[in-house]
Amino acid sequence: MAKIKYQTPSGMHDILSEDYAYYEKVYEIVNDIARFYGFGRIQTPVLEDAALFEKSTGATTDIVEKQMFTLKTKGGDELALRPEFTPGIARAYVQHGMLNMPQPVKLYTYGPLFRYEHPQAGRFRQFHQVDFEVFGEESPAIDAEIIQIFYAILKELKFSHLIIEVNSIGDSQCRPYYKKLLANYLRPRANSLCADCRRRMRQNPLRMLDCKEEKCQRIKAQAPQIIDHLCDSCKAHFKSLLEFLDEADLPYHLDPYLVRGLDYYTKTVFEIFSDRTVQVVDEQGEIVQRSALVGGGRYDNLLKILGGKEIAASGAAAGVERIMAIMKDRGTLAMEEAKPRVFLAQLGDLPKKKSLKILEEFRRAKISVAESLGRDSLRTQLGRADKLGAEYTIILGQKEVLENAVVVRKMETGEQETVKMENLVDELKKRLKR
Ligand code: AMP
């Protein structure tokens, strides 16, 4: 049998309690904002049919082609660890007949996702996203609302200098023509493109606009822009979106080459960056990419691709680890250590046995208590109580237990009083009020 390495798999991490506070802070704000904007929480399985992602995310996307963790069950089903949320939520919308509910249906979720990436700064194989999706609404107002929601989440997390990049990538009316135009532009330049882009040029030339290779970036800079080739309906949608963003004072910037790497987007695509965004660094230590905190857009074709009816939809996701990295770097969340008001010191076996019951009484009374159930001396325990900033220490010795009493020590002055065990919580309530 192979030796255990006591090491998480590459690109995956334990979340230790000091970091968990950041996740909780993010989720707390997300829950508040979701409630305000009328989004209901949904939780889909971590595993889905691999075919779901092949069909929706797209068989030629990097996510499906290179990054999906797949497995075969004993029964022969091909499953995949979800690399993104949208397909699973869209599947749930169809499966549970949510199209018969009053539209739009607004859903949000958060949790772990899995992509077989080359692990590097800001890129993990297991990471977390916060995801919002709206089904059954065509209006660009919804695209703007989603942008506003993610902007608000980041603002509440004290991010400043946020940049929203927006673009429209058209729809099945106008995109095919643009794709042809782009392929025609790329063909004579094929020799100057990276190997991936030469392949992309045939399969899906739009993806070339996403390439981070410097030589491809240079070619991209002169490429035709889709914005100049949108059909009337996409043009009107985009114009209206920008008006909504203007009215809402959301600071956006138009990036005519923003396409995002997935097949299902139509019309609006957007990303949000912070000026402190984590940089992705290559093996030589060169910054190769400024990584987005949030990415999303409209996907009016996805439900049809999945075999359902044509249902307009729009959504976005934020990367929790990237948000956290910046929060930590900035030290914004000065982690408040849970400061106990009371410390419970015990001396010996009999007192220790009483401790659990006392702790539970304090918990029910909502008074925070720290304890030390080890074999420490009174001096050590008082030292700990002091360090934690407890206002009172309850000292429970052998003698006190036999007398059904406890000693209450005021830490500031060192004054000590004996109180009856049954009155302990009430006595402390009184003292803590003062
Ligand atoms: P995407 O689903 O690729 O559009 O990504 C949405 C957001 O999730 C990105 O803007 C990142 O913040 C985050 N993200 C994506 N992939 C990873 C990864 N491998 N590790 C950490 N965060 C990621």
UniProtKB/TrEMBL annotation:
Keywords in alphabetical order: Aminoacyl-tRNA synthetase, ATP-binding, Cytoplasm, Ligase, Nucleotide-binding, Protein biosynthesis
Localization (cell): Cytoplasm
One protein family per Pfam: tRNA-synt_His
Record-listed L-histidine binding positions: 84-86, 115, 129, 133, 260, 264-265
Biological process (GO), any one: histidyl-tRNA aminoacylation
Reactions listed under catalytic activity: tRNA(His) + L-histidine + ATP = L-histidyl-tRNA(His) + AMP + diphosphate + H(+)
MF-aspect GO terms: ATP binding; histidine-tRNA ligase activity
Coarse class of the protein's main subcellular location: cytoplasm
Enzyme class, broadest EC rank: ligase
The protein's Enzyme Commission number: 6.1.1.21
Residues annotated as domain Aminoacyl-transfer RNA synthetases class-II family profile: 11-340
GO cellular component: cytoplasm
Top-level division of the source organism's lineage: Bacteria
Family in the record: Belongs to the class-II aminoacyl-tRNA synthetase family.
PANTHER family named in the record: HISTIDINE--TRNA LIGASE, MITOCHONDRIAL-RELATED, HISTIDYL-TRNA SYNTHETASE
Record text on subunit structure and interactions: Homodimer.
Name the record gives this protein: Histidine--tRNA ligase
Organism: Candidatus Wildermuthbacteria bacterium RIFCSPHIGHO2_02_FULL_45_25
Gene that encodes it: hisS
